[in-house]
C-alpha cells in the first residue's frame, strides 16, 4: 500500500498512508477514533474507492479501473464490528450463501465445508439458529466463518470485539488467533493491546489520516518512539 | 341523515388499538344500511319498497361489483409488475436510470387517477398491431392499464422506501462477500424488505379497489354503472340511498378485512422490527 489518500468530498481522511503486510503476517492497526482506521481497511477490499495512491492485494491493483472489484473481494474477507449477519437466514445459510451464489460452488460440498467452519468456531450446535437467536460473540464467530467460507487470501477485521463483553471477546479473539496461527494473512483494527502483543507481527499506529509509527508490538506498544503514540497509549491504558 | 352518523359512531374509542379492536364499525355500517332501507320502505307502502329493489337488482349489482374486484386484481398485478422494476431503478447506481425512473414515478403519482384513465382510454387504439399479429384492446383492458399506471408509480415508491429502509451495513456485508449489486438485492435486501412492503402494498390495493368505480365514468359496466342504471330505470330517486348503500356495503365487506390485516401486519412489524 503506497501513498494512499482518501477524501470524502473535501474532507481528507487518509493523507498518504504507506504500509506493507507480508503473506501470512498478522498486523494490528491502532489509533484514536476517527483517525481513518475503518476507512483504511475498507480501501483494501475496494468497499471505499481511494482518491490517490495505490494498493496491491495478492497481485491485484485495487485502483486499477479495469479491476473487477468482485474478484478482489473474493480474495479478501472482511468482518465488521456489528457482525452484519443476514437476519433472514440461519447461521449455516449465512455461511453458505456467498460460496453458492457468488462462486457457484456445489451446494453439498459447500454445506460440508460450512459445517466444518462452524465446528472450527465452536458453533456446531447453532447451525440452524437465526442471527437474532445468537449472542454477540456467537454472531461474530458466524461472521468470521462466513468470511472464511470464501477461502480468502487475506482477512480484515474491523474492531470485531468492540461490541462484546470481556468473556465473549475472548471466544472471538481465540478464533482469530488460531486463524493467524494457521498462516492466514490477518489485518486487524483493534483496541485489544494484549492480543496485539501476543499475536501481531507488526503494529501500525495511525492518527489524523497518517501512519505515525510502525514496528513489532514490543517496540510500538512498549517503547514507542513518537510522542503521539505515547499519548494515545497512556490514554487507553 | 343525522341518525345515520349517530349509528356510525363508536360507543368507546380506545386510543391506539381502535382500528383493530373495534368490531363496532362493520356493525355500524350494517345498521346504517338497515336504517336506510327502513327509511325508504316507510315511504313506500303502496309501491314496491327498497327490499324488493335490492332483491331485484342486488344480484346484478353484485355481478358488477365482482367486475370491480376483477379489475382491481388485474390492475394491481399489472401495476406491481411495472412498479417493482421501476422501484429498483429508483435506487439504481446510474444517474440516468435514476433520473428517468424518478420523473416517471413522480408524474404518475401526482396525476389524478381519473385523468390518467381518460388519457389511456382515448389515446390507445381499440387494437394493436405488433408485427403481423393484431391484439384487440377492449375497453376493460384499457381501463385496467389506465388504473395500473398510478398503481405502478405508488408500488415503485413502496419498493424504493422498503429497500432503502434496510440498513447500510447489510449492503456492506454483502459487498464484502463479493455479491454483485443485483444479487445483493435479490438474495439479501429484498427478502428483508418484502415484509415491510406488504402493509403499504395491501393498503394501496384497498385504495385501488375503491378507485375502480372510476371506470364507470368511462363507460364500463361495473358495480356503480349498474347501480345507477337500476335507480334510473325504476325512476325512484328514493331508492338511491339503499341501493348505493348496498354497493358501499359490498366494497366495505371486501376492503375492511384487508385494512384490518394491514394493521395487524404493521403491528407485528412494529413488535418484531
Ligand atoms: N461514508 C463516509 N462519508 C463521509 N465521511 C466519512 C464516511 N466514512 C467515514 N467518514 C469520516 O472519515 C473519518 C474517519 O472515519 P473512520 O470510520 O475510518 O475512523 P475510525 O478510525 O475507524 O474510527 P473509529 O475508531 O471510531 O471506528 C471520520 O471523521 C468519519 O466521519
Ligand atoms: Mg472504525
Structure in a nutshell:
Chain A has 237 residues and is an alpha/beta fold. Helices cover 39% and strands 22% of the residues of chain A.
Structural class of chain B: mainly alpha
Number of helices of chain A: 9
What is the domain tally of chain A? 1
Oligomer: heterodimer
- Categorize the overall geometry of chain A: globular
Relative helix content of chain A:
25-40%
Average pLDDT taken over every residue of chain B: 83
Helix content of chain B: over 70%
The H-level CATH homologous superfamily of chain B, spelled out, is: MetI-like
Q: Which radius of gyration of chain A do the C-alpha atoms yield?
A: 18 Å
**CATH architectural name of chain A:** 3-Layer(aba) Sandwich
Gyration radius of chain B, in Å: 23 Å
CATH architecture of chain B: Orthogonal Bundle
CATH topology of chain B: MetI-like fold
β-strand amount of chain B: under 5%
Uncertain segments of chain B: 1-21
CATH class bucket of chain B: Mainly Alpha
**Poorly predicted parts of chain A:** none
SS elements, strand count of chain B: 2
Amino acid at each position: 500500500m503506497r501513498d494512499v489518500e482518501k477524501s470524502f468530498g473535501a474532507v481528507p481522511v487518509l493523507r498518504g498512508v504507506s504500509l506493507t503486510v507480508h503473506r501470512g503476517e498478522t498486523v494490528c492497526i491502532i489509533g484514536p477514533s476517527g483517525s481513518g482506521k475503518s476507512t483504511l481497511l475498507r480501501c483494501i477490499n475496494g468497499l471505499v474507492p481511494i482518491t490517490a495512491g495505490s494498493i496491491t492485494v495478492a497481485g491485484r491493483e485495487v485502483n486499477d479501473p479495469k479491476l473487477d472489484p468482485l474478484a478482489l473481494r473474493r480474495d479478501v474477507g472482511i468482518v465488521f464490528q456489528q457482525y452484519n449477519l443476514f437476519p433472514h437466514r440461519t447461521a449455516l445459510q449465512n455461511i453458505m450463501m456467498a460460496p453458492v451464489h457468488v462462486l457457484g460452488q456445489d451446494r453439498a460440498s459447500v454445506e460440508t465445508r460450512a459445517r466444518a467452519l462452524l465446528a472450527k468456531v465452536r458453533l456446531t450446535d447453532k447451525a440452524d439458529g437465526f442471527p437474532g437467536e445468537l449472542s454477540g460473540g456467537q454472531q461474530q464467530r458466524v461472521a468470521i466463518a462466513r468470511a472464511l467460507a470464501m477461502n480468502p487470501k487475506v482477512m480484515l477485521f474491523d474492531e470485531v470485539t468492540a461490541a462484546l463483553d470481556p468473556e465473549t471477546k475472548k471466544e472471538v479473539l481465540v478464533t482469530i488467533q488460531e486463524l493467524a496461527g494457521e498462516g492466514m494473512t490477518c489485518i486487524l483494527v483493534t483496541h485489544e493491546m494484549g492480543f496485539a502483543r501476543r499475536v501481531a507481527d507488526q503494529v501500525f499506529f495511525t492518527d489524523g489520516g497518517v501512519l505515525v509509527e510502525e514496528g513489532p508490538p514490543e517496540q510500538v506498544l512498549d517503547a514507542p518512539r513518537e510522542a503521539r503514540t505515547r499519548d494515545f497509549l497512556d490514554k487507553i491504558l | 341523515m343525522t341518525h345515520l352518523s349517530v349509528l356510525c359512531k363508536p360507543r368507546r374509542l380506545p386510543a391506539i388499538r381502535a382500528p383493530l379492536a373495534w368490531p363496532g364499525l362493520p356493525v355500524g355500517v350494517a345498521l346504517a344500511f338497515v336504517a336506510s332501507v327502513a327509511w325508504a320502505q316507510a315511504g313506500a307502502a303502496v309501491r314496491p319498497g327498497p327490499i324488493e329493489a335490492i332483491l331485484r337488482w342486488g344480484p346484478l349489482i353484485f355481478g358488477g361489483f365482482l367486475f370491480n374486484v376483477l379489475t382491481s386484481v388485474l390492475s394491481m398485478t399489472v401495476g406491481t409488475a411495472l412498479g417493482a422494476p421501476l422501484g429498483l431503478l429508483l435506487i439504481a447506481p446510474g444517474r440516468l436510470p435514476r433520473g428517468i425512473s424518478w420523473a416517471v414515478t413522480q408524474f404518475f403519482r401526482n396525476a389524478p387517477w381519473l385523468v390518467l384513465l381518460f388519457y389511456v382510454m382515448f389515446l390507445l387504439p381499440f387494437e394493436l398491431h405488433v408485427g403481423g399479429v393484431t391484439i384487440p384492446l377492449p375497453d376493460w383492458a384499457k381501463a385496467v392499464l389506465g388504473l395500473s399506471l398510478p398503481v405502478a408509480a405508488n408500488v415503485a415508491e413502496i419498493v424504493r422506501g422498503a429497500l432503502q429502509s434496510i440498513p447500510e451495513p447489510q449492503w456492506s456485508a454483502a459487498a464484502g462477500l463479493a455479491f454483485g449489486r443485483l444479487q445483493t438485492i435479490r438474495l439479501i435486501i429484498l427478502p428483508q424488505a418484502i415484509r415491510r412492503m406488504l402493509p403499504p402494498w395491501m393498503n394501496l390495493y384497498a385504495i385501488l379497489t375503491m378507485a375502480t368505480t372510476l371506470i364507470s365514468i368511462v363507460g364500463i359496466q361495473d358495480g356503480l354503472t349498474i347501480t345507477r342504471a337500476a335507480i334510473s330505470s325504476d325512476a325512484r330517486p328514493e331508492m338511491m340511498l339503499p341501493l348505493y348503500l348496498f354497493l358501499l356495503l359490498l366494497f366495505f365487506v371486501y376492503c375492511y378485512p384487508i385494512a384490518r390485516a394491514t394493521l395487524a401486519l404493521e403491528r407485528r412489524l412494529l413488535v418484531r422490527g
